[in-house]
Design brief:
The protein is of the alpha/beta class and 472 residues long. It is 24% helix and 24% strand. The two termini are 44 Å apart.
């Protein structure tokens, strides 16, 4: 007689296989976090580098030139990337980062994605290649800047098409396959007040995974420090602060790998008055920027803008040399704590139906998923065991929940999802972080909730976020 396998035994085998897969997924997730933590630490330990804003705006006396500016404007007579690299070395910088494409869409490399590029200018040479070759030859690491916002190609709010997204992917692929090892790609114009392009309109998760596929060790930095809480890594491997735009690191935040940037001049791209206007003082650069930022696990990148000949002005060169006399990289900074992988997916909870126990006056449940960290749902103090629920109405795949507070307060809670029959726990316990990230194996659900067991003060939630994160 043939052995008979009962339905019960089959279910047990399936469950065992699922558990083994789940364990493997969690292990892989942990290994990925550890690998990223090493790269984050190495980046912070670089301490100080050179931003180089050089592109068609250099020839327009404006940071945002006419989107239809003629490529013939780009015509440097003495461009010397080796001069840039030696200037960086003189200040004891560790790396350089070049603006391959800024907001007006002009590409300064030999791209096949558009005719709006340096090869159709009178210069007709690949500036990105010259930059990468020169900086490596001088023992400096190489990073690149790339703008998602592109006013020439009309890649801006309410006009984005699939062709735009393909162009972005093609351009990033070129930059990460033609110029050797790129330590980091600094991306601008995503989810920024000056662009208003969301992470869904140009899909962040797709682009992030493309970058990591092309160069697994390339850090992705999105200039989005203003919107997201200092304690959480949202849509970036490194927290970024554009100090010239008023973005400042919180004094309380010293545990996130960070980058802060400012120009040595009065603006990012070269202006006609730069040779005669005073540059940032060397002692100020060292004492007020490099040292305190490094002490807060923050790398500082100083922008130095080449002029229309393609050379750095003498006043900037002199300041950099003086910086090099006052400061040198003394090695590793303080060790960073173990950090979770960044949040890179679309938040499924935004503007979905929210329900809760009694709220405090106007701070009702809808403020907990409005995509704003400045508003919050607050429980009424009379409620002893408050809860908050997000109702999707229809089933969705999810594998991560994040709880964001305006300040760390809730410390003991239960996270659950509805499986169609009953509530199932994905977390129950204590977590005192301000940004509480919970990854778990994918489940299918129509609603999720948090049940708050204890908090130091009246419970308050800025954002209750839900994700279906892509995992390899």
């Amino acid at each position: 007689m043939k052995p008979v396998t009962s339905q019960k035994n089959v279910l047990v085998l399936i469950l065992m296989a699922f558990c083994n897969f789940a364990g493997l997924a969690q292990s892989t997730q942990s290994e990925a976090s550890k690998k990223l933590n090493v790269l984050q630490q190495k980046f912070v330990d670089l301490r100080f580098g050179m931003f180089i804003h050089y592109n068609i705006p250099t020839y327009a006396n404006a940071d945002w030139p006419d989107p239809d500016a003629d490529p013939k404007l780009f015509n440097p007579k003495k461009l010397n990337a080796d001069q840039w690299a030696k200037a960086a070395k003189s200040a004891n910088m560790s790396y350089g980062c070049l603006t391959t494409k800024h907001h007006s869409g002009f590409c300064i490399w030999d791209t096949k994605s558009t005719d709006y590029n340096v090869m159709n200018s009178p210069y007709k040479k690949d500036v990105v290649k010259q930059f990468t070759d020169a900086f490596r030859a001088n023992g400096l690491k190489v990073m690149l800047y790339y703008s998602i916002l592109d006013t020439h190609h009309k890649l801006r709010p309410n006009q984005i098409t699939p062709k735009h997204i393909e162009m972005v992917k093609q351009q990033i692929t070129e930059l990460l396959t033609k110029y050797g090892k790129i330590e980091a790609l600094i991306i601008d114009g995503w989810d920024a007040p000056w662009s208003r392009i969301s992470y869904d309109q140009v899909p962040f998760e797709e682009i992030y995974h493309l970058i990591k596929t092309l160069q697994p060790d390339c850090l992705v930095m999105d200039l989005n420090g203003a919107k997201y809480p200092a304690e959480g890594l949202y849509y970036t491997d490194i927290k970024t602060y554009e100090m010239g735009a008023g973005q400042r690191m919180s004094k309380e935040s010293k545990v996130m790998p960070s980058l802060a940037c400012l120009p040595i001049n009065t603006s990012w791209f070269w202006k006609t008055d730069f040779p005669t206007v005073s540059v940032r003082k060397p002692q100020e650069i060292v004492d007020n920027l490099i040292k305190p930022l490094n002490a807060a696990s923050c790398n500082f990148i100083l922008n130095v803008a080449p002029n229309r000949d393609g050379l750095i002005d003498e006043n900037a060169l002199a300041s950099l040399k003086e910086v090099g006399k006052l400061w040198k990289n003394e090695g590793p900074t303080a060790a960073l704590p173990a950090l979770a992988l960044p949040v890179i997916s679309s938040n499924l909870a935004i503007d979905q139906a929210a329900n809760s126990t009694w709220s405090d006056d106007m701070n009702i449940m809808d403020f907990a998923n409005d995509d704003s960290y400045k508003s919050s749902w607050t429980s009424n103090s009379a409620v002893k065991k408050p809860w908050l629920e997000i109702d999707f109405k229809n089933e969705k795949d999810i594998n991560m929940m994040v709880l964001a507070e305006q300040k760390a307060n809730i410390d003991t809670y239960i996270l659950e999802y509805w499986n169609g029959v009953e509530w199932k726990k994905v977390f129950s316990g204590k977590n005192e972080d301000r940004i509480k990230i919970h990854r778990f194996d994918r489940v299918w659900t129509s609603k999720v909730r948090i049940r708050i067991e204890h908090s130091k003060e009246t419970p308050s939630i800025a954002e209750f976020q839900v994700f279906n994160e892509r995992r390899s």
